[in-house]
Write a structure and sequence with these properties.
single chain; mainly alpha; 5 helices
């Protein structure tokens, strides 16, 4: 009978362990989608990712790095992530076709709204938050509640 009681506590212990180890990371899968697109697109930007093994290393690093999630308050919408991924891929393809110094404004697949002047296609791959499609990546992070003053009331 004690063995049955111990087995009955297993789900409770598992739930407690899971809750205690939660990182509260936001957008892990979304981060991985974006970073995977960046690793693919970087090949067109002559970023030293000229081989499949180097691209795989990039993807492996970004997969682990994304365990921290995105520095956002809420998980971004799937449509926003899809637009961002498409823009990154378009920028990489544009750089591969037209050269690494190609202006992002002239790239097909990019809306042409950028927060940084004279942005190249490769800079969109490097810092996608400068494009309108990925601007959600620089949203305000969640702010901690102000400390409570124990001396009042």
């Amino acid at each position: 009978m004690p063995r049955l009681r111990a087995l009955a506590l297993v789900p409770f212990a598992a739930a407690l362990y899971t809750a205690a180890c939660d990182t509260h990371a936001v957008g892990i899968d979304e981060c991985r989608s974006i970073e995977e697109a960046r690793c693919e697109a970087a090949r067109g930007c002559d970023d030293g990712l000229d081989s499949d093994s180097k691209q795989a290393d990039c993807e492996r690093f970004s997969r682990d790095n994304c365990l921290h999630g995105l520095p956002l308050k809420d998980t971004p919408r799937a449509s926003d992530v899809d637009s961002c991924v498409a823009a990154i891929r378009a920028a990489g393809a544009c750089a591969a076709t037209h050269g690494v110094d190609t202006s992002a404004e002239g790239c097909p697949g990019l809306k042409g709204t950028f927060t940084k002047p004279k942005l190249t296609a490769c800079l969109v791959v490097e810092s996608p938050e400068y494009s309108s499609e990925c601007a959600f990546l620089i949203s305000e992070p969640a702010q901690a509640a102000p400390p409570v003053d124990a001396g009042k009331d």
